[in-house]
Amino acid sequence: MVIGVLASGRGSNLQAILDAIRLGTLVAKVGIVISDKKDAMALARARSSNVPGVFLDPKAYPGREAYDAALVSLLATHKVELVVLAGFMRVVTRALIEPYKNRIINIHPSLLPAFPGLHAQRQALAHGVKISGCTVHFVDEQVDHGPIIAQVASPVEPEDTESSLSDRILAEEHRLLPQVIQQFAEGKLGRLPV
Ligand code: GRF
């Protein structure tokens, strides 16, 4: 199965996918990594693993739909079957969701539907929750919304800072995301006809 990963920043979840493929726990190939940020570390990580890493500049398109249409055409050129949003900091539109319906997943650092959007770990601390975690879900047109596939809970400790909580959750993200992709590859999550 060919995966396309969209990432805006650090790319540690991309790295977890690449590592799982190298270890053989994930049987798939990353066909392309696309970023909306020229200097995203995710692009460097892709290139270090001999995966094409492409910067697609949002400023080159008149709007979000046009940008997403360009994404689709790049993904299709690389024969991508599953799109993984791994820290992709853009709201996606129908132009991407329709062609890849039920074949786009996102990872988010909270137990959705709690704390969608930015700074999920900060939101969790501000609300005083005692348990947070991470969620992988199919993507629809709302932010951090759509059918939930899998979640892992992480405790929130009294002495936690945003950084310590983020680290604890991130370690779980790195385990969960490759597992979910493998389940998808095995046809265990359901797939709409293309
Ligand atoms: C992760 O916490 C992910 O859940 C969220 O953005 C962060 C991306 O981190 N959507 P990285 O770029 O994969 O290191």
Please provide a written account of the structure.
This protein has 194 residues and is of the alpha/beta class. It has a single domain, classed as Rossmann fold, CATH 3.40.50.170. 36% of the residues lie in helices and 21% in strands. It has six helices and seven strands; from the N terminus they run E-H-E-H-E-H-E-H-E-H-E-E-H. The chain has helices spanning 12-23, 41-48, 64-77, 94-97, 120-127, 162-185; strands at residues 2-6, 29-35, 53-55, 82-85, 104-108, 131-138, 148-155. Strands 3-2-1-4-5-6-7 form a seven-stranded mixed β-sheet. The chain is globular, with a radius of gyration of 16 Å. The model has no long low-confidence stretch (mean pLDDT 96). It binds 5-O-phosphono-beta-D-ribofuranosylamine (GRF). 5-O-phosphono-beta-D-ribofuranosylamine binds at residues 7, 9-13, 86-87, 107-109, 170, 173.
Structure, briefly:
This protein is of the alpha/beta class.
What attributes does this structure have?
194 residues; alpha/beta; Rossmann fold; 7 strands; 36% helix; binds 5-O-phosphono-beta-D-ribofuranosylamine
Bound molecules: 5-O-phosphono-beta-D-ribofuranosylamine
The CATH topology assignment is Rossmann fold
Radius of gyration of CA atoms, rounded to a whole number:
16 Å
How many domains, in number, for the residues? Answer: 1
> Averaging pLDDT over every residue, what do you get?
96
Instruction: Work out the helix count.
Output: 6
Question: Looking at the structure, what is the overall shape?
Answer: globular
Strand content: 15-25%
* Share of helix, binned: 25-40%
